[in-house]
Amino acid sequence: MNAYHFTLSDVALHALPSGALWAPDTGTLTVSDLHLGKSDRIARRRGIMLPPYETRATLDRLDSLLDVLSPRRVVCLGDSFDDLDAADSLDEVEKLQLTRQQAGRDWIWIEGNHDPGPVDLGGRHLMEWAEGPLTYRHIAKTGSMGEISGHYHPKCSLSRGGARPAFLIDAQRVILPAFGAFTGGLRASHPVLQALLSSDATAVLTGKKALPVPYAATR
Amino acid sequence: MTPLPPQFDDWFSARGWSIHPHQQDMLDRADAPALLLIAPTGGGKTLAGFLPTLAELADGQHVGIHTLYVSPLKALAADIKRNLRTPVDEMSLPIRIEDRTGDTSATQKKRQRADPPHILLTTPESLALLTSYEDAPRMFRGLQRVIVDEIHALQESKRGDQLMLALGRLQRLAPGLRRVGLSATVEDPAIIANSLACNPDPCEILHADPGPEPDISMLVTEEKPPWSGGGAAYAIPAVLEQVRHHKTTLIFHNTRAQAEIFFHNLWLSNTDDLPIGIHHGSLSREQREKVEGAMVRGDLRAIVCTGSLDLGIDWGDVDLVIQIGAPKNVKRLIQRIGRANHRYNAPSKALLVPANRFEVIECIAALEAAKAGDLDGDPPGPGPRDVLCQHILITACAGAFSADELFAEVRTVGAFADLTREQFDECLEFCATGGYALRAYDKWKRLKQINGMWQLRDPRASRNIRMNIGTIQDTDTLKVRFRNSFKPLGEIEEGFAATLTPGDTFLIGGQIVRYEGLREMTVEVSRNAAKKPKIATFMGTKFATSTQLQARILRMFQTGDWGGLPDHTRDWLQLQREISKLPEADRILIESFPHNGQAHTVFYGFAGRNAMQTLGLLLTQRMEELSLNPLGFVATDYATMVWGLDPVTDPAPLIQPAALRDGFETWLQGNAVMKKTFRAAATIAGLIERNLPQNRKTGRQATFSSDILYETLVKYDPDHLMLDITRDEALSGLVDLGRIEEMLTRTEGRFDHVTRDRVTPLAAPLMLEVGRVPIKGEGRELMVERETQALMEASGLDNIDLPPSSPNWRVGW
Asked: Which of A69, A90, A213, A215 is best to mutate for the B interface (most B CBs within 10 A)?
């Protein structure tokens, strides 16, 4: 497995090609915007019945990371569930899979705008969480330092190839791409993201490999 | 038999007309449950269809809707309304005629449902929408006749299947309904007759006098056609000369983009200021209506157009049809020529203008085929099940239904006559619960059964279902308008809009505009005097050259009988014969050469664009396995060109029939065409919603790629109905496996491999071909990696904060 290695507030971090963030020194694995139960919410609210497999597709991807890294702690950076009812919609197989993943490690659910309350599943439930100089929260705040956030589902493309989910990294913060299977994205060049990031930021494209490019060169 | 009321005879004789034999035939058989009339354009076909209706309505006794007229084009409905008014007004018949299309106002539409006219003119989509309303039974009660115009054009697409399903529904609401089909000349009328009739009713086929032989030739120009490209700019002076010498000329193009470019160039050379207009489907309704009006008034000397004018619209005095670019299909050529000289029994005059050197050959082959009356066509497959799924949902919108009755109704549609109950139930189950192996939606199902009747769980869902009615796959488009103006100019694809940055220029409606910005999902532009625009990539349907035409071309190569060809084209073929060789029907010519630092290989398979595209996918997959690092390919009707990092030295393992057939199954699952097919089928079947403008007001992409849905299904629910439909469609329709099979049988693995140090004459046109397909394989990864590396180096970022002891990025562990 390859990764993009960088430091944030002097903490070594690896941006993984899968879109997860790994802190090797503390053994913390961070994933953002899982949107579990999204198909259930869409069926409930809009009557559209998408393939109801995004929860297991997302959990399967997470499984393969846990197998390789054996993290001491997993931080889910908010919007882990597409809404609070979606958390209840998980079937027994999916709940068991999640419980297996949580077993033997610290598990933190950060609150997101889609899931602004506790869920009836194991793990700690927090608004935000600090570890050393790093702060984990769902939505980035301007002016913060050492901040790890998600929410925006950033993606970007080069002159060749389609858009890929991407990490956006500068000296103050890292914004994670969405890890969930059924998730769209926001172009990295969107003004909201531009306002958060310095012009010398780096975008790390995900996919088979983690590919860093200057943020300014992305579209 | 319906006797013609006296005022009709008076009207005919007052005009000095006599009734055509086929019009009389139609009257005589007015009581038949189904009738198909084959007549050339201009043969009084429409009147033949309507005469029995006018006769039956003449006494003013009928209340409500009597005849429904369905045509593939909105413009055609509007045109027929205009033409029908003449006899109705002149005979003072008490008949109300109205049209109803996507362009009809909401108030008008509402009124039409409450108080329908005697004759309603509409399109398949608008009809499908009408049948989705709860008041459909009341509206269509008393319906006597349905006339399907240009049925041959509908027959070729899912729009025809949707229409026939809707007719099945109407037949149940109005059991006495009689069906009439009007068709241009086709190779096999029985196929159309079978799809029109309410199975198992018979459908008699009537033939009108086909009229005199058309006068078709190829336009000879001083200027030689270019080696490649589709613009035919070289022919503009000659085309203008022809326009000057004729009263009204229709200039047909195969794609909208080509029509725009040609129109633009035509105006740059139009020193006489001849009044010339443009008409195609991407233009705004106002623009189109303006041109249509000017044409009817006889104010225009020429119209540059696409398929939107392809059908039997009566534009009056057209005395010349010019086809720019090879017609690809002889049947369509004949139909376009039928546009000229709308007087019955006068020969139609048409000129073919090849856009490039290869099209010269195609045009000559098409001319020969047209003269021989050799029409092309493939038999239709079974009714598409995605359209059936949509039909089930439409039926549910109208009210509770019984599955048994709906199944019986669907089986009356010719294309669905062999549908099994199991297949039907599978579609119903899909509509109800999504049909997933994981039964996740029992709580949120869309349809539920109450007392044996199926109905929507949440009646509000009907709004979404209605918004997604239709089978035409629009690429997502954005409206274009001038800044500070509300008048729309037309539409461009969202994908194209995304590539624009302020200051870019493109062509729309024949003028060059400058992109200013995006405002509330509308593209704002300003006028621009630039000479060279960035060109709008309008999606136009790309037709594949028919098997029959391809065979003629290959025969022409083999016989060396090039007498019909202009010198320049003959010289080109001779050069190809000297430098390499000419393709043969029973073996595949393969040429390899380097170009722009990449290895290129061309396979001349002559199997039509779609099949050659599939071949490109199969070949590049094999090349990926053989580590030849293919980067992409492009396909035309006659060849597939692949380029990559490594040269092909031995093509044998690539084109072995067994290997190609083996690779097909594996390939099928992962390829881009399948994903595109899946997207289309899933949209039609109601699994995903059309990307409607109102759903994408925010900059945020609310939807995610349908590719993800496809991949998830392949992994977690491989037997799902949508995958089954996708596979079927890909095999029979888009992918044209049949033509690959035809090519494999024809050549049986025989090939000639020619290696040269530069592009060969026959391969030259491929270099500028659009529609290149990138291969996202190892080669591409390598390229992206190199580009990111180059960008980092260029920005100097790769040297910043790099402690010498620890590597900064991309380290395996």
From this structure: A213
Could you tell me the strand order of the sheet in which B67-70 lies? B97-100, B119-122, B67-70, B145-148, B178-183, B34-38, B204-207
Closest CA to B148 of B196, B190, B104: B196
Give how far A156 is from chain B: nearest CA, Å: 13
Residue B703: predicted pLDDT = 55
Q: What is the domain range of residue B278?
A: 215-372
**Are the Cβ atoms of B434 and A217 closer than 8 angstroms?**
no
Contact flag B715-A57 (C-beta cutoff 8 Å)? yes
pTM confidence score = 0.74
Give me the sign of the Cα torsion angle B780, B786, B788, B794. Answer: negative
Output the six-digit token pair for B330.
């002889």
Question: Quick one: pLDDT band at residue B713, thresholds 50, 70, 90?
Answer: very high
Q: What is the mean pLDDT of chain A?
A: 91
Sorting pLDDT into bands at 50, 70 and 90, what band is B138? Answer: very high
Examine the domain organization and report whether B181 and B235 are in the same domain: no
Of B191, B207, B223, the residue at which a domain comes to its end is B207
Per the document, the length of chain A is 219
- Cα–Cα distance between B81 and B316 in angstroms, integer? 15
Query: Cα separation of B309 and B511, whole Å?
Result: 20
More confident residue, B723 or B358: B723
pLDDT, tens digit (0-9, with 9 covering 90-100), for B106-123:
899 999 999 999 999 999
- To which H or E segment does residue A154 belong? strand A154-156
Question: Which CATH number fits the domain that encloses residue A72?
Answer: 3.60.21
pLDDT at B12: 86
Last residue of a domain, one of B372, B400, B420: B372
Cβ–Cβ < 8 Å for A31, A74: yes
Coil/strand/helix, residue B469 = coil
The residues with which B590 forms a beta bridge, in sequence order, are B603, B753
Chain B residues whose CB is inside 8 A of the A205 CB are 784, 788
Coil, strand, or helix at residue B655?
helix
Quickly count: other Cβ atoms within 10 Å of residue A120's Cβ.
9
Helix H or strand E segment including B87:
helix B74-90
pLDDT of residue A160: 52
Q: Which of A116-120, B285-289, B717-721, B728-732 has the highest mean pLDDT?
A: B717-721
User: A183 to each of A63, A82, A113, B403, B711, how far by Cα in Å?
Assistant: 19, 10, 15, 36, 14
Report the Cα–Cα distance between both ends of chain B, in Å, rounded.
Answer: 86
- Taking a C-beta distance cutoff of 8 angstroms, is the pair B65, B122 a contact? no
